[in-house]
Structure formats: C-alpha cells, structure tokens
Amino acid sequence: MARKSLTSPEISPATLSLVLLVVLLSSSAIHAGHDYRDALRKSIMFFEGQRSGKLPPDQRLRWRRDSALRDGSSAGVDLSGGYYDAGDNVKFGFPMAFTTTMLSWSVIDFGRTMGPELKNAVGAVRWGTDYLLKATAIPGVVFVQVGDAYSDHNCWERPEDMDTLRSVYKIDRAHPGSDVAGETAAALAAASIVFRKRDPAYSRRLLDRATRMKSLKKEREIYLYRSRCSNRNLIFFLFLQLDLQQWWLTKPFSLMLNRSLLQYRREASSAVWEARNITKGGELMGVDMLLLDEKENVFTRLLRSSFTHHNGCVALTSVAPYPENKTSDGLLTFLTPLHCILLSGDQVFAFANRYRGAYSSSLYHAVCPFYCDFNGYQDELLWGAAWLHKASRKRVYREFIVKNEVVLRAGDTINEFGWDNKHAGINVLISKEVLMGKAEYFESFKQNADEFICSILPGISHPQVQYSRGGLLVKTGGSNMQHVTSLSFLLLAYSNYLSHARKVVPCGELTASPSLLRQVAKRQVDYILGDNPLGMSYMVGYGQRFPRRIHHRGSSVPSVSAHPARIGCKEGSRYFLSPNPNPNLLVGAVVGGPNVTDAFPDSRPYFVQSEPTTYINAPLVGLLGYFSTHSSWR
C-alpha cells in the first residue's frame, strides 16, 4: 500500500533526546501534581451542560433547564435530546456522532480506571446514543442537523429561550452523506460495546441499527402499496443480501392485492425466514424485490425505496430501478404506481456505503462553513467498518476493510484525527489486533500507526505539527485543543497496545517506547490543567485560575433561576460584549486554548480560543480516566 513518506531533517539521537526532555519537562515546576480524579469528574460533568431536551432528575449543573423539546416536529419526528456541540444552540450530527464514538472508546479502553465516575461516563454515552437512535429511526434516512446555524449565530440567547429557526436537515438516497452516516454507524457500534454487559438488550439495539436489517417484529414494519385498481396476482421473488456482496434468490410466492394486511405479513415473513434458512445462518443485510406481473408481462426489480403514507395506502416516492428492468419486448420500463411489498431495513453502514457522497455536497448551505466535510467521506467508511468489525466480529467488515484499504485511502494524512478526519484513529484502532497477534492481514495499518506516532513526537514531528515553547502540541486550523486531546488519546491508547505486545515504535534513530508515548500524552494533559507559561488551567472550574469569559451562550447569559423573564435574541448581546465573567460556571469545559506563542485572550469574541466543544472533552475523558490511576507512568 502506498503511504505518504515522512521527511525529517537529520537529527542526532542526542539532539532528539534533548528536544524531547525540554518539551516534556518545560514548565513542570509550576505544579507539583494534579488531581486527575477531580478533573475527570468535571470533564464528564461538562456534557450535562451541553444537554438538549428534557433534563433528568439527576442533572448536576442545576442552572440548566429543559430546552428544544419540540425539535423535529417540523419534520414529523421526535429529535429532542442530544448535545449542543459548542457554545451555540445548534445540534450538528457529525461532531455529535464523533463525540459519542470517542466517549465510547474512552470507556472501552479506560473505563476500568475511572472509578465512581464510570457511571457518569456511561450516562454521557447513552445521552448521545439515545439521540442517534432517534436520528436513524426511519430506514434510508439520517437526520443530521437541527437548527439553522445562520439564524442561531445571529442571536445570543440561552437555549431555554430559543426562538431561532429549528430547521431539520437529513440525508437520504437522493441526498447522500456517507461521512456523517459512517460516523453514526461507528458511534452506534462503539457504544454497543460499552453496553454489552451493562444493558445487553440496549447493546443489541445499537448494533442492530448500525449493522443489521430490521426484523419483522414489533416496532419493525412491512410496508405495502395496496392498489386501488387491481386485484390480479403478482409474483414476488425476494433477493436477500448476505454480507456486502453475496445475494440469494428465494423461490417465488404470490400475493392477492385484496388480502388483509395480516395475511401479507404472515406470507412475507414466512418467505423471509425460509430464505434465511437457505443462507445457512448468514448475516441478512438487505432485501430487494423482484416483481413479475403476469398480466402485463412486466419483470421489475426494485431497490429499497422511500415511501409516504396517504389515505391508508403507501405510495412510492423514490425508486432506483436496476438496468435489467425490462418488458418482454426489451424496453426499459418503470411501473407507476408499483404494486410492491418492501421490507424496511437500511442499516446505517450499508446506507453510507451504498449511497456514497459527502453530506456537505448535499446540504452545503446548511452545514458549511460550520461542519463541512473537507476531508472526504472515504475515511468515515473505513472508520465505521473498523468499529463494526470490533463490535460484531463479522468477517464481512474485515473483508471490507482489507478490500477498500487503498481505495478509501487509509494511509492518507496520517497525523490527523478529529470529527472530520479519522485516518490516524483508523490505523491505531485496527493495529490493536495486529499487536495482539490476531490479524496479520492488517499489518499495513500498523505500519501507518507507527508512522503516525513518529509524525507527532517532539523533535521529529511532521511539518504540520508544532510544539509551542511551553510544550503544547499545535496544529493549524480551528480550535487547537481538539487536536491536543484527540492526538494525545491515540498516543495513550497505542502505548497500551504496545505494552501488552511488548513492542516499541522505531522512528529512524529514535525508539519510541510505550513509556515515552505516555509521557508525551501526559505532558499535554498537564498543560491543559495548568502546567503552562500562564499558569492557567484551560478547564473551567479546575484550579485557581481558569477561563472566565468563555464563548458560550448558556454560560454567559443569566440562568432561568436568576432571571426568569425571557431574554430575547438581541437582548443577549450585552452579555456577549460584557467584560464581566460568565455568571454560570460550565464546569469541566475545555476551551480552544492558547496559540503557538502560549498566549490566551480570555474573551468571548475570540471564539477560536475561548469556545468549548464536546469533541475536545470526549477524548480527554479517556486520558483523565487513565492518569487518575496511573499518575506516575513507567
């Protein structure tokens, strides 16, 4: 596999060691130590401050109240709940799904060291997945955003008073979004591991939504179009998809259109289960219909389609016919209306893979420039498959990863990891199996992971990675702390994988041991908590000195309990412009942080540096969980 080569200046081992020592130990005398357990507790509490919807009785940040309870109503769905991503009141699905994935990974790898905070961390995961289940409840559709970002950003008001547009945006077959769908599948799969023993039924539900076709039970429906003009026999064949490439054809069965719905369901269910027996227990991932209308002599194969309900009938709103749809005289035909029966069940990953495209192309004016997919959707397909493989152990996902490694560019931009770029995360996640001696076929991913490690170490890092004089890892673009926490998380996770395998990473003349990786990761955590030239903690509520004027509407506007009267869209501007500290402490929020000169303006208008986000905190939860028990690394 072709991978980007890393070019570094010639540096002697002695120089490398000195650079590493300076970066790791710079400013270390500022604090004798940190209370990582306290920081962990606060980093998880932050997510309670970002909650949308009906707040639970055990809500700890009491200045927050219920908000956005009618989200989704304009589209006829319930999309209440979930998280506000940052300091505004929009629910962006792409970063929310990534946040949920990283919270889950934090629990999976470091939950054992979280002590009493593990319960709260799992609760933070569930708050995200409960929303993602709502967002993926309709087959072939993923709701990816609630709230008009332009309308929201034109106001400065607390979420409890929101009167901005709560527009609902979705992706579907006609408007693909493989990136956000792939990340959503990853989040559901990762969370299913978190709940595997804690709540097996919920875990199965998450994994089913991410990987499997919906069954013919309870909440799951057979949709049918009842013709109002025909009672003739229609002959059906079921095409059942096994894995991602194999298909099986059932024997034909017929239905009279004037039969009862119950009879339709019984006969279709029988045909499906008979077909599943044919597959010898293989994983059923999809169903297509082959329809033969004997009277019209028309042979039509249907792809899963969108439906609308009207006057007791189900009408086809979109169908993608296959090229082989032909009448007896060889002409392409398209039946309208189509007399058909369709089994719902576009699982999220198959939807992302089958209908490929970037969601920012489909929804450009809604999601850009806020959360555009600048990196392409290919990495999310691999990322989703990697988590599905880890959660389900299905061979199909392993084969998908191996087959698509080069096509989906697994080796690109290996020193990037965040809500938009999953490359480094993919390689570290998959490498664990290689290091455990279970998956030699993934060896190239381990090579990528090793190169990632070398690309961000102080002294030999890639030109895109810098370290400030105070020791902070710095990457260009957006909130820098998102890079600090996500890349540090990968360093720590990989160091643990290496330790268990008794391996090291060769970086030219330098050998990167697991201990060194932990030191680099811990140095970044300590910088965040106050070991920096300003002696300031960048976590709100931790330490004696921390940001007081963060770019956050709910935190900066008086709470409902302090000011019960509504504060309108423009009325809140005076709080945005005020030099006073925020009245409500958003405990645990980590802001965007200082720049490459270690300077930080504690000012709301400087949102790149003063705004917190959920995807800064999510990987930090794992880091703090580990260091709360292993404060002295070896």
TrEMBL record:
The keyword Acyltransferase does not apply. InterPro entries: 6-hairpin_glycosidase_sf, 6hp_glycosidase-like_sf, Glyco_hydro_9, Glyco_hydro_9_Asp/Glu_AS, Glyco_hydro_9_His_AS. Its EC number is 3.2.1.4. The active site is at H551, D602, E611. It is an enzyme of class 3 (hydrolase). It catalyses: Endohydrolysis of (1->4)-beta-D-glucosidic linkages in cellulose, lichenin and cereal beta-D-glucans. Pfam families: Glyco_hydro_9. SUPFAM superfamilies: Six-hairpin glycosidases (SSF48208). Residues 1-32 form the signal peptide. Keywords: Carbohydrate metabolism, Cellulose degradation, Glycosidase, Hydrolase, Polysaccharide degradation, Signal. Residues 36-213, 346-624 form the Glycoside hydrolase family domain. It comes from the Eukaryota. Belongs to the glycosyl hydrolase 9 (cellulase E) family. This is Endoglucanase. It comes from Brassica napus.
